[in-house]
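Our working data are protein records whose layout never changes between entries. Instead of coordinates, the fold is spelled out as a row of discrete tokens. Here is such a record, shown just as it appears in the course material:
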Amino acid sequence: MKNLARRALERTARLAQPLVARVTRPLTMGVRAMILDSEGRVCLVRHSYAPGWHMPGGAVEPRETVHQALLREVHEETGLAVTGRPELFGVYLNEAMARRDHVVLYIVRGFALTDWRPSAFEIVEHGFHPLDALPAGTTGPTRRRLAEVLEGRPPDHLW
């Protein structure tokens, strides 16, 4: 009887393990867009809640693909609509956010301006900047991703 109870308990623990892992160690994912224009500039945003200049992006919402999140975040933060096919560049671990946070980086070269204006509560400034004259406060991860894409440096895999 004792063995039967022990086996049942072990089986229950094995079955509960994925649920416990999901609750105690949730995986989070975000997207960033390296939007490059034909004039050799990159689109950057400055958020109200985080210091520095970043590539547009944000969290992937439940029941949303990374591609859908990319299109939504670019539009919300810049007023640009992605046209054509974004190029998937890499997936990075972002330990600054959480031990299990990942960022998917896309390169966007096709876009169109829309009537949408980003919320001033979230986006303080946004616009295109020359690659050789990035604004003061451009974050280290942003600069490293630009070097990887434009200078062919090997991807770091850490955001």
Q: What stands out?
A: The radius of gyration is 20 Å.
